[in-house]
Every structure is written in structure tokens, then in C-alpha cells.
Amino acid sequence: MKDQSDRGLLFRSEDIKILMQENSYPEKFSRSNMIESKSSFNLLFLLSPNINLEAQDCGSKFLFKKNQYILHFSSEESAAELWTENQEIIKYLQIQIHYNYILKLINPEESKENADILENMIRNNYIFLHKQTPPYITVEMHMILREIISSSKKGVMQKLFVEAKIIKLLILMFEQFDEKNTVEETPRIPSMIKKFVDENYNKNIKVEEIGKLIGINQNKIRKEFKAQYHVTVSDYIADLRMLKAKKLIINKEIMIKEIAIECGYEYVQNFTRAFKKKFGVSPEKLRTE
Prior knowledge:
- The chain is of the alpha+beta class.
- The chain contains eleven helices and nine strands.
- The chain folds into three domains: 174 residues, Regulatory protein AraC (Jelly Rolls, Sandwich), CATH 2.60.120; 42 residues; 54 residues, Arc Repressor Mutant, subunit A (Orthogonal Bundle).
- Helices cover 46% and strands 19% of the residues.
- The strands form two sheets. A five-stranded antiparallel beta sheet has the order 1-2-9-4-7.
- Strand 1 and strand 2 form a beta hairpin.
- Helix 5 packs across helix 7.
């Protein structure tokens, strides 16, 4: 079987190949073929809705919603066909990683945990994580994919960059697998947003941007988050920032401007206003008391 076309190729090294496939003319090209090389792990991120996938070697069929993904191990070279109903656009990102690269990365001889992870990968246990439903791409995964797609790095810097991003994707995937197999699943959208905010509240993040990243209407994000946690996304972000600010303000060696930046505020005036609203006193006055 001939190797897959390099159309859409973003990166290729001895161990890793990344392809971005987007069918811009669905009326002319309603189907897409994907090749999995021998002894390879394939991360497949479905970025458009209602993609059908049929594995030609075993005849298995799947229907994916937008923003779902799978990790599939192929021991032999294989092919799969992807298509959508009603001639919709097919858009997906495929990251192909050679088995030997993963073997060196995880090294199953180091611990039982490592051995279990590799065994789960080989047995394709990461295809369906919960109730036979393919996992959804998290906000953080979306950010990493966007960085990979838009990166302009070349040469060895590109190789190091790509490998670091793939390792981060694998970590997030393993964590997601563990979470869904140890605790009862909470509503997907609120828990996904909360995790992202908890890790990034000190950055200049907005609900609108989160919505664009995961392809979900911002109004739906606001509604479901408040229903689950009884607070708006914006107020939750503000509360986390103020809690951090109150901890930092007692250290008089840190400038107010530095605290503002550390808490995600671009302008110190906005930080001072928010601080005073929350605690009834300005940060400068609190320091003198």
C-alpha cells in the first residue's frame, strides 16, 4: 500500500508525522482516506461534526461528534475511510507516532504504572473512555492543537516543540482516562471549563475565547457552568484572582503592579478597582494597616 499523500503535512520526523486534513470542497471530495503505518500510535482529533469512520482492515464503523478524539494502535499498516453525510466538510488532525518512540518515552520496565499505560495503549483502551463514548477534546488540548497547527518553527526547534506538545497531549489524555475510570462523570462542559480556569485564571482569559477554542456557544458555557457551580464563569475567575492577590499583598517586597500582572490584570487600575470591590479597601491601604 502506498504511503498517504503529503497533502496537509504539518510535520514529519523519523518517529512522528502530523497531518491536517480539511476538505474545503465537500461537493467534489466527499470522502477522505487515512493511512496508519505499521507499529504506530495514531492520535485522531475530529474537528468537524458527524464524521463517519470505517476501518477497512476489520470493517469497524464509528460515528464521531465534533471535538472528539481517539488514540489507536496499529500493529500493521492499515487504512480507514472518513466521510460525512450531506457532503459536509471533513476536518481532522492526525498525529502518528512510531511504537519505538513511545516505548522509549514510557519505558514499561521502569514501573508497573508505565507498563500498564503502554498495555492500555496497545490494547486501544483509550478509544472509548466512558460508557462507550469517545472522549472529548479539552480546552487545554484545543490550545495545544492550535499551537501545533499555527507554529512557524523550523528545524530542530520545530522538532523539540512538536515533541513537547505531543507529550503534553498524552499526559492530558492519560489524566482524562484516569478521571473517567475512577469517579462518576460530572457534566462535561462545566467540569472542562472549571479545570481550564483553575489552571489559567492568572492569564487574560475570556468566556468568548474559551467558547471559540472548544466550538461551543459562549451562552451555553455560561448557562451550564452556573447551573453546576452556582456562580458565573467571570465571577469564578475574579474570585480565584482575588484569593491569590490577598495572599501576595502581605509580601511588601512585591510591587502592586507585579501582583496585578500575576493575577491576570493587564492594567493596575483594573486590579485596584476589583480588589477594593472585593475587600472594601484598596491594596495600597491594606498594606499600611
